[in-house]
Design a protein that fits this description.
328 residues; 15 helices; mainly alpha; MetI-like fold; two-stranded antiparallel sheet
C-alpha cells in the first residue's frame, strides 16, 4: 500500500505540472484582462501617461510581457515556495484572501455533502429493494427532478417562495443587518439561517445522480449468485441487504464520494453567486471575470490538487471496503 501511495503521489505531481501549465496558458489567452482595464482607468486621469505606455508598463511589472512558457516557469518557481503573488482585484496576498473565504464554502459544501449522503444512499437502497413498487417510482421521479433542475432556476424559485413571498429568509448575503448586535450564539444562528436556502439548492440538484447510482449498483448486486445463496441459507433480508449486498455496492459509490471531495472546499460558483455568499466560488467568479490571473491560477491549481487527492482517497477506501483490492 505504501508503494502504491508513493507511486500515485509522484504521478499526481507530474499530472499537476501539466495541468497547471495548461491553466496558465488558458489564463494568458483570456479576452478579459485586468491589465487592460487598469491601464484604461489610469490613462483617463488628468496628466496620465498614454494608454499603450501604461499597458506596457503594467504588463512588464506583472511579467506578462514574457512568453507564456517563460511566464509559467516564473510563476511555478514562486508557487513551489508558497508565494502565489497578490490578487489584482482584492489588493492582498492570494493565500490571505483565500483563507478568509474558504471556510464559508467548506461549511456550505460539508452540510450539502452530509445531507446528500444521508438522503441519497438510503433512498437508493430502498428503491432497489422495492423494485417496481410505488416507492421505487416515487424515488425515481424525485431523482430525475433533482438531476434535471438547473441550480440557478431552483435557487431562484426558492428565493421567490421563501424570501419574497413568505419572508422567511433574506435574499442575499451570509449575515443579516442586525448581525453585529447579536451575541455569539445569535451570530451563529444568523449565519446558519442564511445557509439554509443555498444548502437546500446544492443538496436537491446533486442528490439525484447519487440516488440513481446507488439504486443501479444495488440492483446489480442483489441479483448476484452469492446473494441468492445467502438467502437460501436462511439469513434475514435485513442482513442480506445491509451486510452482504451494501458492502459490495460501496465500491462504485466510493468513486463518486471521492470525486465529491473538491466540492467541499472549491465552493459552488453558481449557487454562491446567486446568494452572494462570500465563499471561494463567488470570489473566484469575481476574479475570473476581471482577469485576476494570480488568484484564478491559485484557485484552479487548488481544484486540481483536490481532484488528485480525491482519486487517491477513493483508491485507498477501495482497500478498506474490499479485501480483494488489498491482495491485488
Amino acid at each position: 500500500m505504501k508503494k502504491f501511495i508513493v507511486r500515485r503521489l509522484l504521478l499526481g505531481v507530474l499530472i499537476l505540472f501539466f495541468v497547471s501549465m495548461i491553466i496558465y496558458s488558458v489564463e494568458r489567452s483570456l479576452p478579459t484582462s485586468y491589465v487592460d482595464a487598469k491601464a484604461r482607468t489610469m490613462s483617463q486621469k488628468q496628466g496620465a501617461k498614454p494608454y499603450e505606455q501604461l499597458r506596457a508598463e503594467l504588463n512588464a511589472s506583472y511579467g506578462l510581457d514574457k512568453p507564456v512558457i517563460v511566464g509559467y516557469f516564473v510563476w511555478l518557481k514562486d508557487a513551489v515556495r508558497g508565494d502565489f503573488g497578490d490578487s489584482w482585484v482584492w489588493n492582498q496576498p492570494v493565500t490571505q484572501k483565500f483563507a478568509s473565504v474558504i471556510w464559508y464554502s467548506f461549511a456550505l459544501g460539508a452540510m450539502a455533502f452530509l445531507l446528500e449522503i444521508m438522503i441519497a444512499i438510503p433512498l437508493g437502497i430502498l428503491s432497489a429493494t422495492k423494485q417496481y413498487s410505488k416507492i421505487d417510482y416515487a424515488v425515481t421521479v424525485f431523482a430525475l427532478i433533482g438531476i434535471s433542475l438547473p441550480s440557478f432556476f431552483f435557487a431562484t424559485m426558492l428565493k421567490w417562495v421563501f424570501s419574497i413571498n413568505l419572508g422567511w429568509f433574506d435574499l442575499y448575503g451570509i449575515v443579516g443587518r442586525m448581525h453585529e448586535t447579536l451575541g455569539s450564539a445569535g451570530k451563529l444562528l444568523d449565519m446558519a439561517k442564511h445557509m439554509v436556502l443555498p444548502v437546500v439548492t446544492l443538496t436537491i440538484v446533486s442528490i439525484g445522480s447519487l440516488m440513481r447510482y446507488t439504486r443501479t449498483n444495488m440492483l446489480e448486486v442483489l441479483n448476484a449468485d452469492y446473494i441468492r445463496t445467502a438467502r437460501a441459507k436462511g439469513l434475514s433480508e435485513k442482513r442480506v441487504v445491509y451486510h452482504h449486498a451494501f458492502r459490495n455496492t460501496l465500491i462504485p459509490i466510493i468513486t463518486i464520494l471521492g470525486n465529491m471531495l473538491p466540492g467541499l472546499f472549491s465552493g459552488a460558483m453558481i449557487t454562491e453567486t446567486l446568494f452572494q455568499i462570500p465563499g471561494i466560488g463567488y470570489t473566484s467568479y469575481q476574479c475570473l471575470i476581471q482577469g485576476d490571473i494570480p488568484f484564478t491560477m491559485f484557485y484552479m491549481t487548488f481544484l486540481a490538487v483536490l481532484t488528485l487527492l480525491g482519486n487517491l482517497l477513493a483508491d485507498i477506501l477501495y482497500a478498506v471496503a474490499d479485501p480483494r483490492v488489498r491482495v491485488n
